[in-house]
Write a structure and sequence with these properties.
With 182 residues, this protein is mainly α. The chain is 67% helix and 0% strand. The chain starts with 13 loop residues before the first helix and ends with a helix.
Length: 182
């Protein structure tokens, strides 16, 4: 079994390569955009009080933070690939979609009372993917002999104290999908 740091040992699934490439292109566009293009990016690819209706599905692809971009890409590259190899593309899309829907619902509820930016980036899908697999495949999380629930606790603390609706919604959807055995 390849290690997390050894990216070249296994050929990645095409869907994972395309999602990471999409994330990279969109984030690159964000870094290079300014003026009216930057405002369009904010309007359509982040969820806040001035967002359009199209922001609900698209905000899960519009990273604005380099650390979150790298973390989400790394989770897709490692856990996303393993998940697809074990359960298939349709189950991955169901999990990712359910996480995005749950995060969007929480984000819209928060936007009604808080005009600040609520969701930007793929944290919902990543949180759902990590939560589902921490329960379904705990052996994937044995980094340094740490229990997978410790990683989930840290992710939950980030979502709660960082007020990240995408993280909280993704974790809830991932756990719900695990309980429903999907």
């Amino acid at each position: 079994m390849p290690s997390v740091l050894n990216f070249q040992s296994v050929a990645r699934h095409g869907m994972i390569k395309q999602l990471v490439a999409l994330n990279t292109l969109v984030y690159g566009g964000y870094l290079l955009s300014n003026g009216p293009v930057g405002l369009m990016y904010k309007k359509y690819l982040t969820l806040d009080a001035s967002s359009s209706f199209l922001s609900l599905p698209l905000c899960h692809f519009g990273h604005t933070n380099p650390l979150m971009f790298l973390a989400n890409s790394a989770a897709l590259w490692t856990f996303g690939h393993r998940h697809i190899m074990k359960y298939g593309c349709s189950q991955f899309v169901m999990l990712w979609g359910a996480s995005a829907v749950a995060a969007s619902v929480l984000g819209v509820m928060d936007v009604r009372s808080n005009p600040n930016q609520v969701i930007a980036g793929g944290m919902a899908g990543t949180a759902g993917l990590l939560t589902y697999n921490a329960f379904a495949n705990p052996a994937w999380f044995k980094f340094g002999r740490v229990n997978p629930l410790v990683w989930l606790t840290l992710l939950g603390l980030y979502g709660a104290f960082g007020n990240d609706k995408a993280c909280v919604g993704g974790m809830g959807a991932g756990y719900l999908m695990f309980l429903m055995a999907l």
